[in-house]
Specification:
The chain has 421 residues and is α/β, with parallel strands linked by helices. Helix content is 24%, strand content 29%. The structure holds guanosine-5'-triphosphate. Guanosine-5'-triphosphate binds next to strand 1, strand 4 and helix 3.
Length: 421
């Protein structure tokens, strides 16, 4: 029997995802038409004998999360539970705190996945690899190759070329260490908890020496820095390298990039989710997802890489490219939306142009992963995608370029390179 844990973080996390994470917990933000973590859950549901998925985070349980989990449970026919940490315990502290729940029923192994990654989730291949590399006494990290500069933003892995044993692990190194990076997807045998316990005991000893140390601080454990770094070179930690697509979803810009990856996967995994040009329907270019309840005028042109949410209205002559349009939004006649996320219930007026600058990886470099982009560099706003928060209104005939508009704003003129509060 197997299980899976998805680390979903909490409200103080995902700051680079604002203002979109004000409205919906980031793990539920739609990527290629479905909530970000649904992609993880679906991948888990295809692993034979995977009996339970545990989401661990520090969000207060809420209506959106509960109803999503209920629906996903029914759709994917797997037990799913949310376990709430009393505060942020780190990527290792949460699983250690809930170790009894994870181990109940006696799983032979369990996956742990960061919620904010986009992947093909080669979980079955990871299982096979795990069996061939130590089984019950070993742990597997999914790795991929990045270019030298970008590797510095990730956990870097030095591995034995023949055995794939992890010899050295450094999280976000200051100088180049390795081009193999940690994808935030792991397969652990239950014995991993002995190693996390060592870190916990060490924290306890160190903190006992300090006055006013709290129980909570002892429980904060980072899998990457505290556990992987010490396990490396001890014949227990292995890297399974994937050639499949992978990216992180840190900023809103990277959500558009991740949408593109998932939409292209739909070609093989979910062709029914991809729209096509049909008699009497809009013109579709490349991969486009349209929610069945959306109302799209036949003269609109959509794509590539467009996701249209529930109840969205796309009027006559509208052009949309490389964008995510969230539920309830209205794009009026002849408006143009490029490299933008249009927030829930927002309105783009007639002939308005809303445009951002993509923050894609270098298209000529296959090993270039999307970076955690910075909004400001040298005190200046760097060109980014445009984001309209929830319930924003853009008047007719204006241009909004590389800007972020906070929720509930009614604009009256054009803006360029601004955060509109
Ligand atoms: P940054 O670039 O600083 O964001 O680092 P990172 O990519 O290593 O990400 P981080 O470790 O912050 O988060 C990785 C994943 O774990 C994300 O999906 C987070 O939501 C989740 N996560 C981070 N901290 C916690 C925590 O304290 N508890 C839980 N349950 N999840 C967490």
């Amino acid at each position: 029997m197997l299980k899976a844990v998805i680390l979903i973080g909490g409200p103080q996390k995902g700051t680079r995802f604002r203002p979109l994470s004000f409205e919906v917990p980031k793990p539920l933000f739609p990527v290629a038409g479905v909530p970000m973590v649904q992609h993880h859950i679906e991948a888990c549901s295809k692993v034979p004998n995977l009996k339970e998925i545990l989401l661990i985070g520090f969000y207060q349980p809420n209506e959106a999360l509960n109803s999503f989990l209920l629906k996903a449970q029914q759709e994917f026919k797997v037990a799913i539970r949310y376990l709430q940490e009393y505060s942020a315990l780190g990527t290792g502290g949460g699983i250690y705190h809930f170790r009894d729940q994870i181990l109940s029923g006696g799983p032979q192994a369990f996956f742990v996945m960061n919620a904010d990654v986009c992947s093909e989730f080669p979980l079955v291949s990871m299982l096979d690899f795990h069996k061939q590399h130590g089984g019950s006494q070993s742990y597997v990290i999914l790795g991929t190759t990045a270019n030298r500069t970008q590797s510095l933003n990730y956990g870097c892995i030095v591995a034995n070329r023949d055995t794939q044993e992890v010899l050295h692990y450094v999280e976000k190194p200051g100088t180049f260490v390795s081009d193999i990076i940690n994808c935030g997807i792991y397969l652990f045998s239950p014995s991993i908890f002995q190693h996390i316990a060592e870190v916990f005991q060490q924290n306890q000893q160190e903190l006992q020496l300090e006055e006013n140390s709290s129980w909570q601080r002892m429980e904060v454990i980072r899998l990457e820095q505290d556990v992987f770094s010490t396990l490396a070179g001890r014949g227990k930690l292995y890297v399974y390298k994937t050639e499949g697509c992978w990216s992180q979803i840190k900023s809103a810009g990277s959500a558009i990039y991740a949408s593109r990856l998932y939409l292209s996967q739909y070609g093989t995994t979910h062709p029914e989710r991809l729209a096509s040009t049909k008699e009497g329907g809009p013109t579709i270019r490349g991969n486009v997802y349209i929610h069945p309840t959306a109302n799209v005028d036949p003269s609109a042109v959509l794509g590539p890489n467009v996701s249209i949410g529930m109840g969205v209205t796309v009027a006559a002559g509208v052009r949309i490219r490389e964008s995510i349009i969230l539920h309830g939004a209205v794009l009026q006649d002849h408006s143009c939306v490029l490299n933008t996320i249009v927030g829930w219930d927002s309105m783009v007026g007639r002939w308005a142009r809303v445009e951002g600058t993509p923050s894609d990886p270098n298209p000529n470099d296959p090993y270039s992963k999307i970076d955690s982009e910075t909004l400001f560099r040298d005190g200046k706003l760097t060109p980014s995608i445009t984001i309209l928060g929830c319930n924003v209104s853009i008047p007719a005939e204006v241009v909004i370029l590389n800007s972020i508009v906070l929720p509930h704003k009614e604009l009256s003129r054009s803006f360029k390179n601004q955060i509109i509060l």
